Amino acid sequence: MSNMSEVRRTNRQRRHRRVRKKIHGTAARPRLAVYRSNKHLTLQVIDDDLGRTIASASSVETGEREKGGATVDAAKRLGGLLAERAKAAGVTKVVFDRGGYLYHGRIAAVAEAAREAGLEF
């Protein structure tokens, strides 16, 4: 691994720890966690008190894999899909955990799509 990619990874992990100090998902307001890789995107709605995932959406799923997972369009699609699944599970309010990533591009697209689909945060 090159030095620059190692520095970027450690900086993201440091930001993620800093964000997670302040954000905690409860049953009333679970945490919407985002993981972004170069090729895929994974979203989860998590109740941290119980340590359970309430709803999830990923670009690796059967129906989403063919459509591509590393674009802003895919992020919008997954954000709307996760919001529908969360509302079906009875969740309307969440806390957004950007996972140490900058609120830009795919991360911002996920948040906007989830808001448009009815999640409040």
Which key features would you list for this structure?
single chain, 4 helices, alpha+beta, Nucleotidyltransferase, domain 5, 121 residues, globular, 19% strand
What is the secondary structure topology, with strand pairs?
Layout: H1 3-22, E1 31-36, E2 41-47, E3 52-58, H2 62-65, H3 72-88, E4 95-97, H4 106-116
Parallel strand pairs: 1-4
Antiparallel strand pairs: 1-2, 2-3
Helix pairs in contact: 3-4
Class from helix and strand fractions: alpha+beta
- The low-confidence runs, each spanning 5 or more residues with pLDDT under 50, are none
Lateral strand order in the biggest sheet:
3-2-1-4
E-strand count = 4
**What is the level-2 CATH architecture name?**
2-Layer Sandwich
**CATH-assigned fold name:** Nucleotidyltransferase, domain 5
The helix content, as a percent range, equals 40-55%
| Whole-number count of domains | 1
The CATH class designation is Alpha Beta
**Quaternary structure type:** single chain
What does the overall shape look like? globular
- How much β-strand is present in the residues? 15-25%
- Mean pLDDT over the full residue set: 94
Radius of gyration (CA) equals 14 Å
* Number of separate helices: 4
What is the end-to-end distance? 37 Å
Order of helices and strands: HEEEHHEH
Task: Summarize the biggest pleated sheet.
Answer: 4 strands, mixed
